[in-house]
Amino acid sequence: MSRLHVVTGKGGTGKTTVAAALALALADAGRRTLLVEVEGRQGIAPLFETEALPYEERRVAVGPAGGEVYALAIDAEQALLDYLQMFYRLGSAGRMLRRAGAIDFATTIAPGLRDVLLTGKACEAVRRRGKDGAFVYDAVVMDAPPTGRITRFLNVNDEVAGLARVGPVHNQAQAVMRVIKSPETAVHLVCLLEEMPVQETVDGVAELREAGLPVGSVLVNMVRPTLLTPDEYTAAERDRAGVAKALAGAGLGGARRGGRAERLVAPLLAEAAEHTQRIAMEAELRQELAGLELPTRELQTLPEGVDLAGLYTLAGRLRKQGVAG
């Protein structure tokens, strides 16, 4: 079973929402999960209706069966201070460096180091054990950068090659990669049934596989329901009089010829045609995703938008589809 779940996706696909729902789903049956944010956007806190996350692990939700969800917004500067204290025991000297702006300077000029710090903090949480020897967290979910940057972000070995070939930074990168490339990790890609997100998902999977990174599943978000099949639309188009009669029976205009019900038929069938065209396009996109030969789960759109209750709804749908298994 995977213990580190990395969630990526094209911007606008609801990546953060799906990551939060996945963390809730994994917190089922008394389990404890950690939801990690690495982009500094504070997108997790509003979903759980809590204040902005500090640089500490804070409980933000309780799962349906008593599990717990903790959340952490990783700050690269603070993570570097932790790193300096861990390996060099700098203590107050590290804090002085931060006040002088050296910490921000280091993480800005060396983006590879920043990625090592961000991924390293998540991987540390995956490996961490309590006094009883058991893992502190049953699963860690990372709300990761978008699909276009995910391979470079995770492949920190390549990133640090130009920074350090030996020493603590190199060793840290090696430790991170042992977790990321292990069976404990799964990279999930969030997409919509639209051409550009699907294409970016296909490209992202290819890049991840080429880099030897473990791909988990495709999570299709905001799926709209099928209201009318192509066959049903064809039947309605052939029987316009029957459609007018049905509209009249529903109280939408009288049944007389030329009445309001008949006038509604043409615009209604035009909308139906657009709907069936979308259904046909989505069927083609599903076939394209099926070609990836990955588990694919679908999350129907929430008509009222995503609030805390909606997040629990999405988590339940993920559990039913086995993504938390």
TrEMBL record:
Which Gene3D superfamilies does the annotation name?
Answer: P-loop containing nucleotide triphosphate hydrolases (3.40.50.300)
The GO molecular function terms of this record are: ATP binding; ATP hydrolysis activity
Q: Which domain of life is it from?
A: Bacteria
Q: Which residues form a coiled coil?
A: none
Looking up InterPro entries in the UniProt record yields: ArsA/GET3_ATPase-like, ATPase_ArsA/GET3, P-loop_NTPase
Please report a single Pfam family linked to this protein: ArsA_ATPase
Boundaries of every ArsA/GET3 Anion-transporting ATPase-like domain copy: 5-178
PANTHER family linked: ARSENICAL PUMP-DRIVING ATPASE ARSENITE-TRANSLOCATING ATPASE, ATPASE RV3679-RELATED
Its protein name is ATPase
